[in-house]
Amino acid sequence: MKVIFPDSNTALLAEGKAVVSFGQPGASPTQPIVKDSIIVQTQDIVPWGSANNFPQEILKRARKSTIIPTALNWKANLLSTPVVPFNIEYDDDGKEKPQYVRDPEILEFINNRHFRRYLSETANDIFWFLNTFPELIISKDRKKITHIHPNEAAYCRIGVQNKQGVSEFTYVNANWPWASSTDAETTKIRTLDPYQYDLVGWARDQHSDVFKFIFPSSYPTPGNTFYQLAHWDGIRTSGWLDVLEKVPVLKKALFDNQMVIKYHIKIPREYWANEFGDQWSKATADQRDEIRKNKMTEINRRLVGAENAGIALATEFGISAIDGKTIEGWVIEALPDKLKDGSYLADNMEATAHLMYALGIDPTLFGFASKEQGARSGGSDKREALLIYLSQLQAYRNVLYEPLDFVAEYNGWKKKYPMLQFRSQQTLLTTLDTGADAKKVAA
After folding, report:
1. What is the spatial order of strands in the sheet that 10-13 belongs to?
2. In 173-325, which residue ranges form alpha helices assigned H by DSSP?
3. Which of 418, 426, 420, 424 is nearest to 106 (CA)?
4. Whether the Cβ atoms of residue 343 and residue 247 lie closer than 8 Å to each other
5. Is residue 16 very low, low, confident or very high in pLDDT (cuts 50, 70, 90)?
6. Collapsing DSSP states into helix, strand and coil, what is residue 131?
7. Rounded CA separation 30/407 (Å)
8. Separation between Cα atoms, residue 383 and residue 20, nearest integer Å
């Protein structure tokens, strides 16, 4: 059935020879106004964190981790795969019948370098902060959105709400928190309200002298009106990130400051007189020190070196002529190696497990395995864990594709293809019995 949309409020059903009008809303959606003493003090912007440096502090701490940046990049890579346009139809049983859209304008938009950069940069912001601030650039005649520009989330600050509860502007500056809304380096950009009913008409007709807008898109988290809070932030507030930070510091201090002693050699006082006789009894204090030093050098030479590995050490001891008991002899004790014992290993493994839980990643996908945690890392575990993870990505794709859906409305693509949807090209690992290493599907 062919459906034509002459505007955002009307549909023409060609085969049915009917016109459908969409009702206009009788009211605007409720958007509560947040009153906060910190917001009042900043006047124009809503600070991100009490010191307006939350993302900067998160980046600073997370970059010390050997896992967090890599894990978030891994998640972003799986999200920012090539986009494929489909017009989705359904049969009588409700089963999808996707039709690939070979529209040159759409394909050029989603395959140009601007959009590829948008995908990769915005996907990273989604998993780092759950907040994105892409910029939509409008053509001079205001008929089309030409491309999407990704703004670094950490550089963006939301403007304060107006009387209707809407934040009208976003402020972009690379120098937060040492910047203000009035600085010469701060760019003030008008912001679209995703809750606006006829957003396309508003963007096209209002503020005709404006040729770029911020389209804020975020993954909602409870209790956060302006800036969302990444799910993995619990690793920081719980204190487990502190544990992970301290373990390498303590390990380094152990390596730097611990004297590695392998043996404790106990030599009886009587040994020197019995061994060296008159040379010892007639020697001065300095001469006796020299005798001891030479003997220590000889002992050390016999104990170290690859050529002495596994050698036998023979010593003598005497028997007392008075009571027939053994006279005290040399004693060589091997000392335990604390570094070899794996100091703090259990603490590090437990903290790493908590980090994986916070990141929402199955530990097997990163090769994490320990006797204490009982984790396995076989091929089947990895494949199944990956499939489970990929099945949960759609909610994040909605955040990534929301600005693109708006572009499709603004540029008239959804009038040509009423059921236009953007899907992700996903690579799936297969089992050996399929005869292939992997296959690509639309997700």
Report:
1. 3-7, 10-13, 18-21
2. 199-205, 234-237, 240-257, 270-276, 278-281, 285-303
3. 420
4. no
5. low
6. strand
7. 25
8. 48
pLDDT band for position 320 (cuts 50, 70, 90): low
d(CA 118, CA 150): 5
And the tokens for 297? Answer: 């050098």
Rounded Cα distance between 83 and 107, Å, is 9
Convert the pLDDT of each residue in 158-168 to its tens digit: 999 999 889 99
DSSP 340: T
Task: State the CB neighbour count (10 A cutoff) for residue 47.
Answer: 20
* Higher-scoring residue by pLDDT: 35, 265: 265
Please give the single-letter amino acid code of residue 434. Answer: T
Q: How confident is the model at residue 371 (pLDDT cuts 50, 70, 90)?
A: low
Residue carrying the six token digits 């070899």: 340
Percent with pLDDT over 70 in the chain: 78
Contacts of 54 (CB under 8 A, 6+ apart): 48, 227
Tokens linked to 165? 């509860």
Distance from the Cα of residue 388 to its chain's centroid: 18
**What are 5's two structure tokens?**
């949309």
Question: Whole-prediction pTM value?
Answer: 0.76
Residue by residue, DSSP assigns 420-439 as EEEEEEEEEE--GGGT-SEE
Query: Are the CB atoms for 123 and 217 separated by under 8 Å?
Result: no
Which residues does residue 266 pair with via DSSP β-bridges, in sequence order? Answer: 331
Q: d(Cα 178, Cα 50) in Å, to the nearest integer?
A: 14
Burial group, residue 424, by CB count within 10 angstroms (0-12, 13-18, 19+): buried
Structure tokens at 3: 């459906």
3-state secondary structure of 385: helix
pLDDT of residue 428 exceeding 90, the answer is no
Which residues in 41-123 belong to E strands, given as ranges?
83-90, 96-100
Q: Give residue 199's Cα distance to chain centre.
A: 33
Q: Which residue did the predictor score with more confidence, 305 or 58?
A: 58
Q: Is the peptide bond before 216 cis (omega within 30 degrees of 0)?
A: no
Element (H, E) at 71: helix 68-79
DSSP annotation string for 148-178:
EEPPPGGGEEEBPB-TTS-B-EEEE-TTTTS
Burial of 66 (0-12, 13-18, 19+ CB in 10 A): exposed
